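Work package 3, deliverable 3.1, input record:
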Amino acid sequence: MDKILKSAREKISVGERLNFDEIIALYNENDLLYLAESARRVKEFKSGKNIFYTINRHINLTNVCSSNCPLCAFQCRSGDEKAFTLEIDYVEKILLDAKKIPDLNEIHIVSALHPEKNFDYYLDVVKLTKKILPNVRIAAFTPVEIANFAEKSNQTYEKILMTLKNFGVTNLLGGGAEIFSPRVREIICPKKISADTWLEIMRIAHKLGIKSNASMLYGHIETIEERVEHLLKIRELQDETHGFQSMLLFPFQPLNTELGKKFNLQRVGAWEDLKMIAITRLALDNFENVKSFWVMLTMPIAQLSLAFGADDLGGTIGEEKIIHAAGVTTQKNISRADLEKIIRETNYIPVQR
Amino acid sequence: MIDEDLKIIEEKILRGERLNFEDGLALFRCKNLAAIGMLADYVRKKICGNNVFYNVNCHVNLTNICVARCKFCAFGRDENSTGAYAMKIDEIISLIENALKSPNMGGLHVVSGLHPTWTFEHYLEILNTIHKKFPALYIKGFTGVEITHFAKISNRNVEEILKELKSAGLQAIAGGGAEILSDRVRNLLCPKKATADEWLNVAKIAHKLGIKSNASMLYGHIETIEERVEHLIKLRELQDETGGFQTFIPFPFLPKNTALENKISQTSMWDDLRTIAISRLMLDNFKHIKAYWVMLGVPAAQIALNFGANDIDGTIHKENILHEAGASSPKFLTEEKIINLIKEIGRVPTLCDCNYNPL
């Protein structure tokens, strides 16, 4: 066995931190079940037999976007026939409906960068959410949206985040990280904030006591080295702030995207998805949780990923628009009973949070 | 199950010792899926190395008209129902001619309903005609259930039936119809077809006559874990005696459009993978374990190759039986696709005939 791989396996056996070369070596070795078994041990060390899930409602306020990333199938320009923007009355209706969901504990708000909606619009949504659902966690906005609010209202990131926190936002979302490599961002999302800005906004949020998730979008034009660099940058910030809760992996869904067409990309397979979950669990030793986002993975693979180091199945969702725009055929929501049954089948314990 | 139990099983496996009924149950109770997979993968490597076997083949389902009408089947029809069909000889020939457009087309997999009025001579004539017209194609066909049926309708014994089929060109027997080898389950779900003993008896006589066969298990319906393990042990016992089984195929039950649709939900990939792995571990005298992509779906079948499977079936040309039960997999795969999904995981694609001779 090659020297680097040997050191990687030794480190895994004693729970030591892996370096860049070791993670690459493990990836290339491609021993799927070794990775799974090692990642499961880490998972059980971190979260025991628990598998977390949330009863939540996703709200996508608008798909009209000034960023127009080639990776995205959801966004469109103002005036496009599929364009939509939820006015505040309609949001109220959704929230009142959501209020009827038993044990609802999270509202999840993520949207496009609407060129004409100012920060007040988003703030009104937060205020309304807090008013209608005072005891529900508000997980809202990615750093990409925060930067957009700052620019539009000419305020610092810190000021924006402070305001959102004061009006009820409890968690920042992990999206928009994509792949940190500037080479890749130039192609897949040229108008989006840089990696440094994404990380900086997370740093400020964590310092203000706002927890967040982190993410990676893989399976497009990035190299394996770029994936690992991405993971290590997140690990570095986590060492500094300890403000990240879950890491999410998003396999790129090429359908209906400009990026997919341009490079003739196919969705990576289940093997790759499971391998990445396990590698991520092993690489991010300072993360408590790795979340399997069932909407993207499909439920059978998400369930299987619980044997590959994941310990969070995400939410019941209610209604999802962004990923379904990229042609995924998973359901738009799932019942709590089904989610719990799926977890129990793996002999783990479902825990709502 | 506590990890201590798995440790004991692991030691047995490393020593090459046979697992017993209790071990099988313990494996089904164990939640450590990846560990079971690793053990199965170890055994797979030891028994059959890194080759993954596949066929370029064509499924021929002569008729869906069936007297058995099992509760788990979405394919069978009564004679006058809509969608009922019985292929004429020229239709069968043109199906095969069409399939022969695929390069490397190796052979046929012929399984069908138990037609109420067809005689054994008619089946024999079909077989004869196919074999004479396409002598280069191997023919694997008829399950233990069909062969038991032929014996009954022709008043002959199974041995005579098998001899006649063999001389008409049959080279191997298909693995279906084993379902669960428990008469409790069979009485509830498929009372009109071959019993567990009848199915095993066909395999036994075939093996004695030098005809190889496959074995299968339909799981994920009303059977218990105990019945799954008993099923595997029954197959293993017969294999000890005859050595005539080639591959074992676990079939997850697909409930859609069957009489059980509203009572039973489809198995999870978790259950599918552990069942493949446990089959590999229990069936120490079987050379091959098949990940049947039609039922598992292609992604799970690929992963199953790391959970003890070394056989991924074939290109199929056009699958009918399981797609009636809502299988969401494609109706065929190209040879290129099969080769790629084997190579992607670092294994060696090996094209073979119905008796696992590399081509």
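Chain B has one domain: 50-351.
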